[in-house]
């Protein structure tokens, strides 16, 4: 698999992380409860249950060619329901980190979106959708992307579900220390 060298600003050493992911999934008994619980599974190219098996089989190339982990919305439902108590949501997040650290993505839209999301949470402790999407559109540098969101945006505005006011791009960065600590811990792995 060709690695994408375009920077996403999310790079971390990622050393040993894939091996740790595999170790964490050792107790999976392939019952499929995670897949049955996942609201995004129907859009994924491999289901969560399949991905755990692929991790155990060391199928790194196939996993990182897929979009499964990018489509995980971190709802934690699979983690709550797994009879083995495995850290499944954290594992999906770890796969995102490995992909960005090692440049394993064919389309930079997903890592750029992921970075816009995390940056927004880091600044505000929650997502401010309008600012996050504006930053995503600017970073992705492809006018077709914002245009593709116009129908959804109009629907949300019509239902009063989207606040189009942008009250200053700033944020207090209250989670900076937490993020820095996590990055240090990841780098030490
Ligand atoms: S719910 Fe847990 S044990 Fe069952 S397939 Fe998913 S990860 Fe494996
Ligand atoms: S945390 Fe991700 S993989 Fe698990 S159920 Fe939610 S969307 Fe699916």
Could you please describe the fold and organization of this structure?
By secondary structure, this protein is mainly alpha-helical. The protein has two domains: 17-102, Fumarate Reductase Iron-sulfur Protein, Chain B, domain 2 (Orthogonal Bundle), CATH 1.10.1060.10; 109-187, no CATH class. It has helices at residues 17-24, 33-37, 48-56, 60-65, 77-81, 88-102, 109-124, 129-140, 144-148, 150-158, 176-187. α1 (17-24) packs antiparallel against α6 (88-102). The protein is globular. The protein starts with 16 loop residues before the first helix and ends with a helix. The model is unreliable at 1-13 (pLDDT under 50). The structure holds iron/sulfur cluster (2 copies). One iron/sulfur cluster (SF4) is lined by residues 28-34, 49, 52, 82-84, 86, 88. One iron/sulfur cluster (SF4) binds at residues 28-34, 49, 52, 82-84, 86, 88.
